[in-house]
Amino acid sequence: MQTKNKGLEEPQGLRCEPCATLARDPEAVVALFTEDGTYQETPFAEPMRGRSAIAGYWSRATGSHTSVHFGYELLAQDSNQTIAHWWCSFARPPAKASLKLDGIFLLQFDGE
Fold first, then answer.
1. Pairing of strands 81-92, 97-108
2. Which helix (H) or strand (E) holds 89?
3. Which of 20, 47, 59, 100 is the most buried (most CB within 10 A)?
4. Measuring CA to CA, how many Å separate 58 from each of 23, 39, 54, 81, 96?
């Protein structure tokens, strides 16, 4: 995992997410969300709502990935949210197609 933080404090949610991604563990991912949390894969898709929906998506989306590499850079933060640039590459069977993804996280925290 590659990380850049520009002197910003790394939030707990972002520290855990790469580990959950590398382990392809839907339960570890959903533990980062409140019961009514949402996850939106793209800005154009309807958000998934609740831990059950997020776990189902994560299991389908990452279950077969191999050779996963993840990195991120913290861009901005305040008391209850963080913006981070992330990137990920992985192989997807059965053709072992190599894929690279790049995006922005907007993480909002409930303060607990």
1. antiparallel
2. strand 81-92
3. 20
4. 11, 10, 6, 22, 19
- Rounded-to-integer distance, Cα 73 and Cα 71, Å: 7
Which of helix, strand or coil describes residue 100? Answer: strand
Banded model confidence at residue 3, pLDDT cuts 50, 70, 90? very low
- Which tokens hold the place of 16? 């855990």
pLDDT value at 2 more than 50 = no
Distance (Å, whole) CA 58 – CA 20: 10
Q: What is the pTM for the complete model shown?
A: 0.68
53 touches 36 (CB < 8 A): no
Q: How far is CA 21 from the centre of its chain?
A: 7
Tell me if 41 sits within 8 A of 29, measured CB to CB: no
Q: Supply the pLDDT for residue 1.
A: 46
The torsion angles phi and psi of 84, rounded to 5 degrees, stand at -140, 140
* Domains defined along the chain, listed by start: 2-108 (3.10.450.50)
Strand partners, 98: 91
